[in-house]
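thought: fold this chain, then report.
action: predict
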Amino acid sequence: MTQEIFDAHTESQLKVLSDISEISKILDIEFWLRGGWAIDFLLGKITRPHDDIDVETWVQNRERFEIALAEAGYEQIPVRKQFCNRQSDFHKNNVEVTIGFITHSDNGSLIMNGLPEWIWRADSLLPQSFMLRGISANVLNPKQLLKEKEVYEQIGRTPRLKDIESKKILHSIISDFSKMIK
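observation:
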């Protein structure tokens, strides 16, 4: 059994995850974790140190979520012009948070706001919550997380060591999910 990774930065990130969970409850809005933290919540354990926290929510939640984070002491960081319609970035206590905004295209496909070319799986948004260290969060479907890693490679991004490891873990999670459904 591998030992759970836990350091001061991870502790700060868990505090931010707890804040985001509480803020979303107060605002009555849904959010889903993406990236490494999504994998950790799916597994129910911390697998590695993470650089940041990636969150997805509906674009109509943007203004209320940004205001609530600012009121909770989060500093909003400017994003590059090409990303301004699809994400907001925040920082608090050395923790970076990227909030991506999802919507539906004209034909009903799930997409990132402002990026209609990136069509997500119809089942990307898992309805159930997962728990980690007393924090409740929804996560993206592991099949969507895996697809994202594969798309990055297809468009020429060199896989990082953490991407290679994440793909292995995601394949295992997907296999385990398939067994539970049968």
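thought: worth noting. The beta strands are 32-34, 53-58, 75-77, 87-92, 95-104, 110-112, 115-119, 125-132, 135-140.
final: tokens above.
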